[in-house]
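Worked Example 4.2. Read the sequence first, then its structure tokens.
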Amino acid sequence: MDRDQVATRWRGLTVTVRDLPLAALVAVAPLVPSLQHQGTQLGDVPHRPVDALAVAAVALQSAPLAVRRRLPAVCLALVALGFAVDQVRGYHSVASIALPVALVSTAAHLDRFRRTTAFVASAAYVPLAVALDRSGAREQVSGYLTFYLVLAAAWCVGVWLRQSRTAEAEHRAHAAEGARVAERTRIAHELHDVVTHHVTAMVVQAEAARYRTADPAALDETLTAVTDTGRRAITDLRHLLDVLDPGHDAARADPRAPAVGDIAGLVEQTRRAGQPVELAEEGDPPASAGSAEATAYRVVQEALTNALKHAHGRATTVHVRHGDEAITVEVRTDGTGDRSPAAPGGGRGLVGLRRRVDVLGGELSASGQPGGAFVVHARIPSGTPS
């Protein structure tokens, strides 16, 4: 069993079980000869030999450490009682180290009444000092005050640990929320790309069918194209929904899922929608599509969708160059043809694509050219895995 497995199993144990070793260590520490006279001597009460009450004091100070995180207030109360017995009776056991440990744990893990607990603990220190003084202690007031400040410092350490843990939890929560927002945004863009492209193609094809009623063969071809586009839309949407499924297994993905890097198929589908499109590709695309290839596909898809919407019937050229450092995409639509849009658009597609390209460190521009042509150009750095 390697170290990671041991760590995982250890984290899987209950808090009490994980705190038991510390309690056991404090319990056996007084049995070590070199530590028998190393305990706290508050008040300098004359040392007494070990008896049954000394053993009980050690047990009171060590055993509660097993619940120092589950029941921190109870742990502190019992440890403080054992510490008081240890000091007043003059045992001066090394188990007295449990008191600052209990203070740190209580300040770090107590969820309610922390201020009340601190006040009660401070107030309980006064009768302890009085009891020590009546037992013949030779400690000055400054000594009691110094020891109190040491205990207060232990409490402050626990407060700092609690604040650090809270800040870390908040940071993780913000990071998780940011990741969820980013994922929702990405999914929204994917849905926009898939739905808008296919629905636009279907609208254009359905409009074209109106003018082919006199030619049954042409009408059948157009309706077949509408049906194929609808099936492709369903397949793409099903694939996207499968990815959203928490139980989705990427290794067993549907082989009919859309190939994001299949720009040639995208161009052919647009041609069947009635848009004259020419494709020119340079270089060899990678065997597996990464983020750069997926973004390039979406750029071409959005540009062709806009061509169908706003420039139906105009000649369109798609030029894709797969380089070692970047993928360059240019989609140009001529300025001739029917200027009426085939379907309304909300303008979200190019905005979303620009964000996606920016995330990868690329550039995207979309603007009109002299003569009425419209060009979408993108440069996307390669080597970004999905």
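Now turn to a second chain, presented in exactly the same format:
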Amino acid sequence: MRRYARTVVAFALATSVVTGTAGWVSGDAQQALTGPPPGTTSWRADRVLGEELPDPERATPAEVAASFDGLSTGERQLLLLRHPSVVGNLDGAPLELRYRANSLALAAAEDPRYRSLATPGRQILAFDPRGRGQVAEVFGDLRSARRVSVVVPGSDNDAGTFDRKVAAHGAPPGMARTLHAAAGPGTAVIAWAGYTTPVGVGVDAATGRLAEAGAGRLTRFVEGLTADGLPEPAVFCHSYGSVVCGLAAHRLPATDLVVLGSPGMRADDVDALRTRATVWAAKDPTDWIDDVPSVRFAGLGHGTDPTDPAFGARRIPAEDAEGHAGYFAPGTDSLRAFAAIARGAATEEGAAR
């Protein structure tokens, strides 16, 4: 009975937190964008090569990669020109083809929110303008990189906010850019805003509904990288992005899972994640996420704090990071540790070397 009472109190506290007390904003309910890329209907009907093309929804990334391996340069270019929105988002397709396809799709986009993404020289690996928009950008030479990292952001991130200037190292491209600069030669980092994130701090942020959809998209995206011959990545998961990573962990091909500013991973401990990746966790003492109760009840909350010693993750020093968006700030211990993980050169205790 006493345990039940504690659970009810925790549930009430969690509800009060996520619905806007303590001055936090209430979030708007979001509809997760799922399914195949825009233009898939035309792609499925196209017989320009004399046979069916790999289905963007049903074909695995490995099957997509095998299909493109059998095409000539001219055939690849033909598909690129006829279906840039599909090719640019087709996990398993060659990354060089995806860059060119997304450049074409962005050049044709009329929405002013995406104008900056069309800047020449940017390496856009995915771009879907539907809804709030989704995007992935590469920093470094992905094809030649010996070590690859993927940054998965949390709430309020989409293609329209991707290039926001506030807290530059807290936005997805800022996190990826500073990580790549710190990790150095031989590495590449992808900023992946490829799922529908919560808006504000509300019920969406307190449940796993959007994270479930995002976990499937993240898994397929990473499988596409490995199918294209790239190394398994280290995946850095910020805030609600760590919920996505927690739900994807058991099927996500990754060397490391690094969670920072996490409200929980919907798992009681590392073993419950069922991953062979090394799991790391960071939280700085000024991060407001520390006020979010580490509970999961009636679908609300995300469970154990990954920095709790009982969770079993390797702890990353983050005492000099400031706030919820400060983990990638240049000069911080957390960024130095992240860079060591990105290089594949981190100690057992989580400190850089």
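Notes for the reader: Strands lie at 123-128, 134-139, 147-152, 187-193, 234-238, 256-260, 278-282, 314-315. Residues 250 and 272 are 9 Å apart (CA to CA).
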